[in-house]
Amino acid sequence: MERVLLMAVHHQNQTLERFQSSLDELQALTKTAGGVVAGIVTQKRERLHPGTYFGAGKLDELAELVEQEEPLLVISNDELSPGQLKNISNHIGVRVIDRSQLILDIFATRAHTREGKLQVELAQMQYLLPRLYGQGTEMSRLGAGIGTRGPGETKLETDRRHIRRRIDEIKHQLKAVVSHRSRYRERRKANQAFQIALVGYTNAGKSTIFNRLTGNDSLEQDQLFATLDPMTRRMRLPSGFQTLLTDTVGFIQDLPTALIAAFRSTLEEVTEADFIIHMVNSAHPDHEQQQATVLKLLKDLEADHLPILTVYNKADLLTEDFIASAHPYLQISAFKEEDRRLVMEKVQEMIQETSEFYDTIVPATGGRLLDKLTQETIMTKRTYNEALDAYEVSGYVLPDHPLSHQLKGKNEA
To answer: Which residues fall in the annotated binding site for GTP?
Structure first.
């Protein structure tokens, strides 16, 4: 475990709660990256010092703490300019990184797919390129310690031309991977699969509910960004209606711009969805801000027009009455089976509201059509009529589903 000091400015327009929540998150990010927080230095300022982030007196206080605690690293809560990084590091004598670099570092350890690794490497290079000036060789390499890790054995050299060439290479490789992903998505669309995206702030419990709804065993940890690569699995709703559920990377406030750009294709899973389940950690003191961060990102992705069910998770950890700020919503604990069933029933009810009613007769020999109706529509009635030697079937079908035209034709007949 690496000893780390944190530095943070309490901005004038921030409430004390908002600042504390941001600081708690920085500590959680540090722990996730394998660091131990040995001390925190904060200062309330109207604006960040353009050259040194802190004022001169507070910077001296930080330097004294560095001498006492002997950390390997200092992490800033705000994104720092190349000049600020260099000036602070020179003044205190240890390596300095900022929140963005810390998040990139965690992503580097979490990426498992080829696309994930390429995207992290691209984001790191784009982020570090303007920050190489004056950092010294040991600081400009990826390899050992928090804020220096990268996928595989990649080393980041100070030669800018080499980095720019590598950025172009990665972009070229990513194009191929992204086009493969979009072909796969088109195939899913062609198969008329109803797609549900599971979104939420990091550590809201998405993987926990995803695993239990789909019978999957992806990583579940009480850590930030436990899931990085999106995963899609089948989920059957109570009526038998089959959907595809995608677990996405956790959102976070102040996500590095380079990372949003690099992970665009991963987050596109959300834009391709037909329905969104937004998981919120209701037990978190700053859950409203976290909820707002996710909604803003959905708006940026132009996915805010999709039907959204807000699921306030971790109800078992609540110590006081909870007031929901989003509708429709459910309040659950993802570990409880009856709560998970409520989620599936509510999703089905919301899909039904946007669907068209059908009432049809299927001959006893029409087994394939019956299966299709069970899996691709929300079937509410299925009874066998002996006199007709057929099934009387009714339910709800999505307006743009091919079965919709078939069923309309039968009803009119």
So the answer is: 200-207, 225-229, 247-250, 313-316
- Cα 261 vs. chain centroid, distance in angstroms? 14
At which residue do the structure tokens 């406030």 appear?
253
Q: How far is CA 251 from CA 106, 124, 181, in A?
A: 13, 18, 21
Superfamily of structural domain 2-106: GTPase HflX, N-terminal domain (3.40.50.11060)
Q: Domain segments of the chain: what residues? A: 2-106, 113-138+150-190, 193-352, 356-409
Q: Answer yes or no: are the C-beta atoms of 407 and 358 closer than 8 Å.
A: yes
Annotated binding site: 200-207, 225-229, 247-250, 313-316
Using the Cα atoms of residue 147, residue 205, residue 114 and residue 274 in order, give the sign of their dihedral: negative
Residue 185 in tokens: 């998505």
By three-state DSSP, how is residue 397 classified? strand
Binding-site annotation: residue ranges for Mg(2+): 207, 227
Which architecture characterizes domain 193-352 according to CATH? 3-Layer(aba) Sandwich (3.40)
Q: Do domains 2-106 and 193-352 have the same CATH topology?
A: yes
Instruction: Determine the Cα–Cα distance for residues 164 and 175; give it in Å rounded to an integer.
Output: 17
For the chain, give the mean pLDDT. 85
Q: Are 261 and 119 in contact (CB under 8 A)?
A: no
70-103: pLDDT as tens digits = 999 999 999 999 899 999 999 999 999 999 899 8
Q: Supply the pTM of this predicted model.
A: 0.80
